[in-house]
Specification:
about 325 residues; alpha/beta; DNA polymerase, domain 1; Rossmann fold; 2 domains; nine-stranded mixed β-sheet; 11 strands; binds adenosine-5'-triphosphate; binds magnesium ion
């Protein structure tokens, strides 16, 4: 699963909006000759940061080298990219100050999240059908296009749609409502339909390619768990399901760290007991998702069009609730 096939021109590049990323010669790393560098680039490792946060076994497989050699290459990439060692609290604080935030459209929900959806972190929206998970994903993909003073990051979105519920018409409605040109807004959302869990995982690699050409600061996976859940049904398949889900989440986090991007995932709650949980109100994916997601918002229905969003399991924010409305113009307070 570590192969991250490259397709350089995916047809979406419009040069004027390209964000240049520093070109670092992988060949400068000790032990990396031209052939290895080519294989690494083919597998999607094109700069130091991506190598620095990769796992030795993935790099070994991609470059067809031993794990020990891969480890050395990664260590050197970490040293040069200045990641991976101990850091003082001051540096950590500085990095956190670079975090971007995107508005959800409802100030109450933004406040609950500490100021909006955060970059370099996974935010999960869970809840039963019709609670607004997909609407929120659409709204955030619109809002991120706005300048910071209007709750965005002047950036674009990769949208991985696993259930074919992405609706361009909703983007048009939401864009108009905040004064964005609807066609331009649609042009800044790059959608891929994931046909199965394996394809879904591969699309994160594709997203990395795109993020080198476009200013992508948000990756949406709607839904994170649906394919995994339907493909790995039996009790005996629980371990591989969780293993692949874990890997997927870490690749998403890696994307977030590399590009300082927000990661928004949706998750159904099980209407019948999940094999992991007897409790039918728990989001699917169990402790794997619980550990990987920094912010978990559980949505439930209230008097229409209202929904109640509850923050669960945050490391630095108090638990609490916000009321939001699903309107024709999008998510509102
Ligand atoms: P599922 O688990 O089935 O994917 P979900 O949580 O993603 O559900 P959404 O599709 O986000 O649910 O929410 C659907 C709800 O959004 C509708 O029930 C409706 O309340 C609201 N909605 C959708 N489109 C519009 C619209 N054009 N105008 C007003 N409200 C809308
Ligand atoms: Mg949905």
């Amino acid at each position: 699963m570590s192969a991250k096939p490259r397709a350089r021109n995916s047809g979406t590049d419009e040069p004027e909006a390209v964000v240049p990323r520093p070109a670092v010669a992988l060949e400068d790393l000790p032990g990396v000759g031209g052939a290895i560098a080519d294989k690494l680039r083919e597998a999607g490792y094109t700069d130091l940061m991506e190598l620095a946060v990769a796992s030795p076994s993935d790099v070994a497989e991609a470059a067809e080298i031993g794990t020990a050699t891969a480890q050395k290459i990664i260590s050197e990439a970490r040293r040069q990219a200045d990641v991976g060692g101990f850091e003082s609290g001051v540096i950590l604080l500085e990095r956190r100050q670079k975090l971007g935030r995107v508005s959800t459209g409802a100030k109450s929900l933004d406040d609950l999240l500490g100021g909006g959806v955060e970059t370099q972190a996974i935010t999960e929206f869970s809840g039963e059908f019709g609670t607004g998970k997909t609407q929120l994903a659409h709204q955030i993909a619109v809002n991120i296009q706005q300048p910071p003073e209007h709750g965005g990051l002047s950036s674009e979105t990769v949208y991985i749609d696993t259930e074919a519920t992405f609706r361009p018409e909703r983007i048009v409605d939401m864009a108009k409502a905040v004064g964005l040109d609807p066609t331009e807004a649609l042009g800044k959302i790059h959608i891929a339909r994931a046909f199965n869990s394996n394809h879904q995982m591969l699309l994160v690699g594709k997203a990395q390619e795109l993020a080198r050409e476009r200013p992508i600061r948000l990756i949406v996976v709607d839904s994170l768990t649906a394919h995994f859940r339907s493909e790995y049904m039996g009790r005996g398949e629980l371990a591989p399901r969780q293993q692949f889900l874990n890997r997927h989440l870490h690749e998403l986090l890696r994307f977030g760290t590399t590009f300082n991007a927000a990661i928004v995932v949706t998750n159904q709650v099980s209407s019948r007991p999940d094999i992991l949980f007897g409790d039918p109100t728990r989001p699917i994916g169990g402790n794997i998702v619980a550990h990987a997601a920094t912010y978990r918002i559980y949505l439930r229905k209230s008097k229409p069009p209202k929904r109640i969003a509850r923050l669960i399991d945050s490391p630095n924010l108090p638990e609490g609730e916000a009321v939001i409305s699903l309107t024709s113009e999008g998510i509102r307070e």
